[in-house]
Every structure is written in structure tokens, then in C-alpha cells.
Write a structure and sequence with these properties.
The chain has about 220 residues and is α/β, with parallel strands linked by helices. It has eight helices and eight strands, in the order E-H-E-H-E-H-E-H-E-E-H-E-H-E-H-H. Helix 2 runs parallel beside helix 3 and helix 6 (about 185-190) runs parallel beside helix 8.
Length: about 220
């Protein structure tokens, strides 16, 4: 099982965005997580394809992981693909044909992934586990960074991990995002998560590299799959 840490660009200094992208890459994190918010599906606006393109320009070898918090992600897949997204996550609650859009993402040569909100039952993603490479369990209500981890979401991580194993995919990636730090990351790992998005916690560190290394190690030690 691979354990991955993804700094969330939402927590970066937007006055020095390129510098913070480079800083995140230099930390040794596996990928950059880019949250795209439409002010409809979630109560906030973030950024668009140009920031994904900036990430590709200033850190071309830093994997770009794009989370579309959008009511209609199907209308924006191509722009984000052209900007350089390498994984695209869409919400199971989105207003589109999930089967069709996962297939479109894969056809573009991009890794397809699903997301579910804290209120959404794990079973809602079960019909799609054979069509995506990863599921993100939101452990806060999406829209704003710096929120408190919702521990009640952990059983969903375990349920998704178990269902993927039943389908013959024991190494299926289960990600968590929301309130992840040195304490909550291992909690999620103990439930079965192996990918961890952290925003405020990482970007506030003087030594992001040390924080990434410590978080990865503590999560790997706590993992129960």
C-alpha cells in the first residue's frame, strides 16, 4: 500500500502562489491537491483552470490532483484536462451521469476518482468502484479550509475499503480531506485511508518537508486495511 500526502493549494498564500506550489513540491509530498469551487455546489469560489496550468508551468513534475466541487463537473472536464489535471475527482452528489463522466475522464487519459460529502452514505459510491481509481471521503463540509475533522466519517472509509477488497482491489486508493493533521491523519489511516490531503496544517509549517515526512510515517504506522 502506498501512503501519499497531498498539500491543498487552497491554504497557500495567494499573493505568492507560484512560490507556494514550488514549496509544496520541495516538501517531498506526492501530489498537489487543487480544490475547484463553483459557489453553487459549495458556498465558496476558489480558482479555475489557469491555476492548474500555473501549477504545471512552475512545477511540471509535481502531480496535479484536481477536485471539482461543482454541481456540473461534466461541463468543465475538458478545460481542466487541457490545463494539466492528472487526476480528476467528481462528486457522487453532482448533477450529471456519474458513469458517463468517469468514462470520459478515463478516455482523456486522466485518472478518474469520486468524492462523497460527510452526509452521503458510503454505499452511494459502491456502484462506481469498478469505474474509478480512487474515492475521497470528505471529513469536513466542503467549501472552506481550516475546519475541524469529522470523526464520524471514519466508518465510511472502512466500508469503502472493504467493498473495494470484495471487488478484488485491495490496493484501491481511499483518500481523506478535511481537518487532517498529525492527530487526525492516523485516525483516518486506522480506518483504512492511504491518501491524505492537508492544507492549513502543512502550509503553516516552517519546515513543510519535515511535516510531510512525519505525517506520512504516522499514517503508515496507524494504517489498518
Amino acid at each position: 500500500m502506498q501512503f501519499q500526502i497531498l498539500p491543498s493549494l487552497l491554504a497557500a498564500d495567494f499573493g505568492h502562489l507560484a512560490d507556494d506550489i514550488v514549496r509544496a513540491e520541495a516538501s517531498g509530498a506526492e501530489a498537489l491537491h487543487l480544490d475547484i469551487m463553483d459557489a453553487h455546489f459549495v458556498p465558496n469560489l476558489s480558482f479555475g483552470p489557469d491555476v492548474v496550468a500555473l501549477s504545471r508551468k512552475v512545477a511540471p513534475n509535481f502531480y496535479r490532483h484536481v477536485h471539482l466541487m461543482m454541481t456540473r463537473p461534466d461541463l468543465y472536464l475538458e478545460p481542466f484536462a487541457k490545463a494539466g489535471a492528472q487526476t480528476i475527482q467528481i462528486h457522487v452528489e453532482a448533477d450529471c451521469d456519474i458513469h458517463a463522466e468517469l468514462a470520459r475522464i478515463q478516455a482523456m487519459g486522466i485518472r478518474p476518482a469520486l468524492v462523497l460529502n460527510p452526509e452521503t452514505a458510503a454505499e452511494m459510491v459502491f456502484p462506481y468502484l469498478g469505474e474509478c481509481d480512487e474515492v475521497l471521503v470528505m471529513t469536513v463540509h466542503p467549501g472552506y479550509g481550516g475546519q475541524k475533522f469529522i470523526a464520524d466519517c471514519c466508518p465510511k472509509i472502512t466500508a469503502i475499503r472493504a467493498q473495494a477488497a470484495k471487488l478484488g482491489r485491495p490496493d484501491f486508493d481511499v483518500m481523506v480531506d478535511g481537518g487532517i493533521n498529525g492527530e487526525t491523519g492516523p485516525q483516518a489511516a486506522a480506518a483504512g485511508a492511504n491518501q491524505f490531503v492537508a492544507g492549513s496544517y502543512l502550509f503553516k509549517q516552517v519546515d513543510m518537508g519535515a511535516a510531510v515526512q512525519a505525517l506520512r510515517a504516522s499514517c503508515a504506522a496507524a494504517y489498518v486495511g
